[in-house]
Amino acid sequence: MPTIANMLQQYAEHNQLLSFEGTMETIIPGVYFHRATKSSPRQPLIYNSGIIIVGQGHKIIHFPEHQIKYGAGDYLVLGVPVPLECEAFTDNDLPVMGIAIDINPAMLHKLVNQIMQHKPLSASSSSAQIGAVQSATLDTAMELVTHRLLTVLNNPIEADIFGEDIVKELVYRVLCGPQGHTLIGLAMHDGHYARIARTLSTMHSSYANQITVEGLAEDVNMSVSSFHRAFRQVTFESPLQYLKKVRLAKAKELITTSGSKANEAALKVGYTSPSQFSREFKRHFNKTPSEVLTQLHS
Q1: What Pfam families does this protein's entry cite (predicted)?
Q2: What mean pLDDT is predicted for residues 3-13?
Q3: Please, which pLDDT band fits residue 128 given cuts at 50, 70 and 90?
Q4: Residue 7 CB neighbours (<10 A)
């Protein structure tokens, strides 16, 4: 059986992506192909929620008190979007390659309900402390379903007929694996994890608006102190720090992809003080907006 790295290389060849850099959606909605030919230094990024499977290369995610290293043969489970500091490494001068899979909420809820009909969750698994970022090694079942997914990606007819079912099986395998509690927590409507996930959805869609911690807590029927504690447990950040990182990431995106000027980008993401924006941008990215643009075009 070919390795996942070999299958990703075949996918790149079949779809004329041997010079592609970055992340793009495949013919199966919600499934993304990622490729990078060079290592990248430690930098702040926002990881979207989903399942990331690495076929080649490795990455290190840095937290204040620990690190997560994951590479070929590993997968990462993110229940919510999280601002992280990450560095990526090519191995043996071969490109970093992998796939990412969005988790459809309706599919997830249906799967969790079906699993619970056969195997009720114990109190420990449903109330365990859940962090937003987890990684694990692919077991045989996960490897086989990943192979099937990569196989049908090269065949539009099979991708259309089988793609959704293969993604469903992949999510099921994750639910049954060592990081399944992250997704189970997401499906529990009244649990703290699911409430914080709803908060993050609000923050990502309304980051340019005036947002208060009190308002966010009220939206999910939590006290401010409980909300603060649960938010930090899930995202490793305070609500205001998280919001700041989302705004800065969005501003950087506006500057690099839309050509927005720094002051214009600052206003669009919710800053009222351009000088505060410039200070926080430099502190976060270790570069000024103009230096980011210069690096982009060099």
Answers
A1: AraC_N, HTH_18
A2: 97
A3: very low
A4: 21
